[in-house]
Amino acid sequence: MKDSRASVIAETDEGFEFDISVSPERALSSAVLFDAVQNLLCVDRDSKEGRVCIKRTFDWISDSEDDFPFSFMNVCDALALDEFSLRVGLINAYMSGGVFH
User: Fold this and answer.
1) What percent of the chain has pLDDT over 90?
2) How many Å apart are CA 67 and CA 90, to the nearest integer?
3) Residue 7: inside a domain, yes or no?
4) Is residue 42 part of a domain?
5) Residue (of 99, 17, 21, 15) closest to 54 by Cα position
6) CB contact at 8 A, 4 and 23
7) What distance, in Å, lies between the first and last C-alpha atoms of the chain?
8) Residue 52 in 3-state DSSP?
9) What confidence tier does 19 reach under pLDDT thresholds 50, 70, 90?
10) What is the reported pLDDT for 101?
């Protein structure tokens, strides 16, 4: 049986590489969370599309259900993150202005 873990190679300041094995589920959870952060901090708040995107992201962050695989709660669980602290941090980051302040 083939191992389905992905390998991530990174180069440090010292010039050596290291391998971090990440499951596909964890990698996808990271991508979902990264997308949410980009939506809150990098979307143009003055455009209609941006406001819709931000609203959907806030709805996702605010949802306390874990009824679908990539709900906020399940993403936090997959990444071993405290959902309350992350939720508060994301909201505070958004309220501080984001990129389009």
Assistant:
1) 53
2) 22
3) no
4) yes
5) 99
6) yes
7) 50
8) helix
9) low
10) 47
